[in-house]
Each structure stands twice: as structure tokens, then as C-alpha cells.
Automatic annotation (TrEMBL):
<keyword id="KW-0321">Glycogen metabolism</keyword>
<feature type="domain" description="Nucleotidyl transferase">
    <location>
        <begin position="17"/>
        <end position="285"/>
    </location>
</feature>
<keyword id="KW-0548">Nucleotidyltransferase</keyword>
<comment type="subunit">
    <text>Homotetramer.</text>
</comment>
<dbReference type="InterPro" id="IPR005835">
    <property type="entry name" value="NTP_transferase_dom"/>
</dbReference>
<feature type="binding site">
    <location>
        <position position="108"/>
    </location>
    <ligand>
        <name>alpha-D-glucose 1-phosphate</name>
    </ligand>
</feature>
<feature type="domain" description="Glucose-1-phosphate adenylyltransferase/Bifunctional protein GlmU-like C-terminal hexapeptide">
    <location>
        <begin position="308"/>
        <end position="411"/>
    </location>
</feature>
<feature type="binding site">
    <location>
        <position position="206"/>
    </location>
    <ligand>
        <name>alpha-D-glucose 1-phosphate</name>
    </ligand>
</feature>
<protein>
    <recommendedName>
        <fullName>Glucose-1-phosphate adenylyltransferase</fullName>
        <ecNumber>2.7.7.27</ecNumber>
    </recommendedName>
</protein>
<feature type="binding site">
    <location>
        <begin position="188"/>
        <end position="189"/>
    </location>
    <ligand>
        <name>alpha-D-glucose 1-phosphate</name>
    </ligand>
</feature>
<comment type="similarity">
    <text>Belongs to the bacterial/plant glucose-1-phosphate adenylyltransferase family.</text>
</comment>
<dbReference type="InterPro" id="IPR011004">
    <property type="entry name" value="Trimer_LpxA-like_sf"/>
</dbReference>
<dbReference type="InterPro" id="IPR029044">
    <property type="entry name" value="Nucleotide-diphossugar_trans"/>
</dbReference>
<dbReference type="InterPro" id="IPR005836">
    <property type="entry name" value="ADP_Glu_pyroP_CS"/>
</dbReference>
<feature type="binding site">
    <location>
        <position position="173"/>
    </location>
    <ligand>
        <name>alpha-D-glucose 1-phosphate</name>
    </ligand>
</feature>
<feature type="site" description="Could play a key role in the communication between the regulatory and the substrate sites">
    <location>
        <position position="107"/>
    </location>
</feature>
<keyword id="KW-0119">Carbohydrate metabolism</keyword>
């Protein structure tokens, strides 16, 4: 092996494989028409852009994305925004829809099967390492650090993990580790999660990020595919088997989390509920938000639409286009409306005398004249009728819209249509 090869980043010999087929049913009607990884986030991006940007920023130049549930908008986004990787530079970007490649009646049966069904494509690229990623979380992470940890430890698999309060780990795969970080047990969604040694109130929860040598992974996937009792799932089958029969290493997110000078804590969010999604977007309006999306050292890549600047018009009492502590994307027109602690995606219109307070408004929605909306998520293309009030009458909101227990309302086109045509 040459010195150049020996000192090259491990990421250059790695393929990132993003699992992006899930619906995300806890987001309710937001995922009626799109998979969870395709859900909009932060004004310009989609959720999947974070995992993909982490891979790109980490130096990984071979990426595959497995899609399944209502994948059209996700695939369209990937084709528009992620088509710049070039084969002539030993780069690749493959969108891998469930396409019955193994059997005419079999879609992806689980997370492990979503990799196994594309084993021939992966092996054709011949990466030495594979990093398996979930496509539905918001975080910034340098995967090169995790890859190096995997190589240095000599593990069969390295599992990315979060430190969480012990009883909050009941919805995760949870690892029991020894003092060296060796995983001695892996339990999927335990009722009584094991704690970290010496820290009885903290548990290690799986991030759904796994590093393998490619040959070892393929051997495990073939073994699992031959097991009629398997769920074809990494968390339920592959990882527990390796813990029992091989060497599995835990990798703490704190070791490889990317933070700008503005970020004090390691940031990771599962925006899988309406409340969590709304809160994570509204958090971006803080003076110093917990997630720095302005960090030029670790950019979040996405499809960049060509849009005119945002515009604020009218300057009369009660009819002044203005915004306080808000994010307003391109092609928005605030035409005599008022925004407070709100986040507007591309192409939103807020008409005269309208008020938006703690509102997350997805692309090309319109807020009608005199409407008042607060604590809302308004889906793409929704037209809020003139004078409509949302967020002030809990009982009426619950009859008309999807209202969460914490008082956030999700508003979609069918919900507005039912109001309009009664």
C-alpha cells in the first residue's frame, strides 16, 4: 500500500447508504403525499438533506438512497438537487426505489432488506466500507471521525449512539456497553432501558447509523436473508446477531457532532411528530438558535431554486408588511401582513391585515386578507381564506384541523376544502 493510499481519508473508500423509505405516520397528514425524508424543513431544505450533506461534507463521494413509500417528491428533489456527483471523478449518486429486484412480489421488507436487494449495485462499486444512515433526522455529524473509530477499534460493526435520559430511551434501540464502549447487549425499544456504566440516569440510544466493512455486511445480509424467522431489520436482527456472535462498538455522537461557534450543545432531532416538527422549525427563529444553519464550514446542501428576493410592502397602521424574529425565504411577499416568530418557505404570500404568530408555512401557501394564524403548520399550497382564525379557539380548531395535545394545528388542503365547500 502506498503512503498516499494509507493516509487518504477513509471516507474516500466508503459508500453512504441512506434509508429513506419510511412514511413517518406520526406526522399525520403531512406524509399523506410524501415520505418523511421529503418533508420540508428550515425554510429551504428537506429532512433528507441533512444526512446527505453530512456524507458529502465528510468526504464521502459514493451515495445511494433507498426509497419506497410515496417517493415521487423525494426522487424529484434528489434528481434536482443531488445530481452533481460525477462518475468520471469516481463519484456516484444512486436513487434505489423498491423495484422487486429480488422477487416479483417483494418490496423492501425491512431496513436490512433495503440494502440486501441492492447488494449487486453496491458490490459493483466495491467500496471497502459502508455507512448505513437513516434519512429522517436533523443533525450535523462528521462521519469520517466515526469511520476512523470503527477502523481503530477493529469492530465488526460500529453503531452511532446518543446519550439520552434513561427513560426517554424506551422508543429507541438501546445499547448496554462496558467501560470501553463494547456493546454487550442491544435491545429494541426496551421498557426498562439499561444505563451507561457509572451514569445510572443516562442510556445509549441508537441513531440508526451503522459502519461495516462491505464484505462483512454482505455476508451478514445473505445470512439474514436465508433466515425465515428474520424481520430483515438492522435493529431487530442484524445488530443483535453481531453483538452476540462478533464485536460491536458504540460510537458516541458527542465525538463526531459538528458544531459552529454558535452551537453549545450537540444537536440531534427526530422531527417525527407534528409537535417536534413545529418546535424544531420555530427554534430556528431564536436569536441564537440551537442549530446553526448559517454555518459555512458545514453547509446543508439542497435543491436551490431560482427565486426573486422576499418582499415587504405597505406602510400604514395595521397594514404594514413586517416581520419580527422570523425567517422568510425567497419569493415570499408580505403584503401588509405581520409575522412574529414564524418561518416561511419559498413563495408564501401573506396578504393585508393578516397576522402570523409562531407559524411554520410550507411553500406556496397563501394567508388571506385579515386572517390570523398562530401555533400552526400550514402545508404546501394551502390557501387560508380571508378572515379565518386558527389557534385561538381550541375546540373549534380541533373540529376543523389536526390539533395536537400541546395546541399546535396542522392545516392541509383537504381540511380547508371541507371548510370552503360546506
Amino acid at each position: 500500500m502506498t503512503d498516499r493510499k494509507r493516509h487518504a481519508p477513509i471516507s474516500r473508500d466508503t459508500m453512504a447508504y441512506v434509508l429513506a423509505g419510511g412514511r413517518g405516520s406520526r406526522l399525520m397528514e403531512m406524509t399523506d403525499t410524501r415520505a418523511k425524508p421529503a418533508v420540508y424543513f428550515g425554510g429551504k431544505t428537506r429532512i433528507i438533506d441533512f444526512a446527505l450533506s453530512n456524507a458529502l461534507n465528510s468526504g464521502i463521494r459514493r451515495i445511494g438512497v433507498a426509497t419506497q413509500y410515496k417517493a415521487h417528491s423525494l426522487i424529484r428533489h434528489l434528481q434536482r438537487g443531488w445530481n452533481f456527483l460525477r462518475p468520471e471523478r469516481n463519484e456516484s449518486f444512486d436513487v434505489l426505489p423498491a423495484s422487486q429486484r429480488v422477487s416479483e412480489d417483494q418490496w423492501y421488507a425491512g431496513t436490512a432488506d433495503a440494502v440486501y436487494q441492492n447488494a449487486d449495485i453496491i458490490e459493483d462499486y466495491a467500496p471497502r466500507y459502508m455507512i448505513i444512515l437513516a434519512g429522517d433526522h436533523i443533525y450535523k455529524m462528521d462521519y469520517e471521525i466515526m469511520l476512523q473509530h470503527h477502523v481503530d477499534s477493529g469492530a465488526d460493526v460500529t453503531v452511532g449512539c446518543l446519550e439520552v435520559p434513561r427513560m426517554e430511551a424506551v422508543g429507541f434501540g438501546v445499547m448496554h456497553v462496558d467501560e470501553t464502549g463494547l456493546i454487550t447487549d442491544f435491545i429494541e425499544k426496551p421498557k426498562d432501558p439499561p444505563s451507561v456504566p457509572g451514569r445510572p440516569d443516562i442510556a445509549l440510544a441508537s441513531m440508526g447509523i451503522y459502519v461495516f466493512e462491505t464484505k462483512f455486511l454482505m455476508d451478514q445480509l445473505r445470512r439474514d436473508a436465508a433466515d425465515p424467522n428474520s424481520n430483515r431489520d438492522f435493529g431487530k436482527d442484524i445488530i443483535p446477531h453481531i453483538v452476540k456472535h462478533g464485536k460491536a462498538q458504540a460510537h458516541s455522537f458527542n465525538r463526531s457532532c459538528v458544531r459552529s461557534a454558535q452551537e453549545t450543545d450537540a444537536y440531534w432531532r427526530d422531527v417525527g411528530t407534528v409537535d417536534a416538527y413545529w418546535q424544531a422549525n420555530i427554534d430556528l427563529t431564536d436569536v441564537v438558535p440551537p442549530l446553526d444553519i448559517y454555518d459555512r464550514d458545514w453547509p446543508i446542501w439542497t435543491y436551490s431554486e431560482i427565486t426573486p428576493p422576499a418582499k415587504f410592502v405597505h406602510d400604514e397602521d395595521g397594514r404594514r408588511g413586517s416581520a419580527v424574529s422570523s425567517l422568510v425565504s425567497g419569493d415570499c411577499i408580505i403584503s401588509g401582513g405581520y409575522l412574529k416568530r414564524s418561518l416561511l418557505f419559498t413563495g408564501v404570500r401573506a396578504h393585508s391585515y393578516s397576522t402570523l404568530d409562531h407559524a411554520v408555512v410550507l411553500p406556496h401557501a397563501q394567508i388571506g386578507r385579515g386572517a390570523r394564524v398562530s401555533n400552526v403548520v400550514i402545508d404546501r399550497g394551502v390557501h387560508i381564506p380571508d378572515g379565518l382564525v386558527i389557534g385561538e379557539d381550541p375546540d373549534l380548531d380541533a373540529q376543523r384541523f389536526r390539533r395536537t395535545s400541546s395546541g399546535v394545528c396542522l392545516v392541509t388542503k383537504p381540511m380547508i376544502d371541507r371548510l370552503t365547500y360546506r
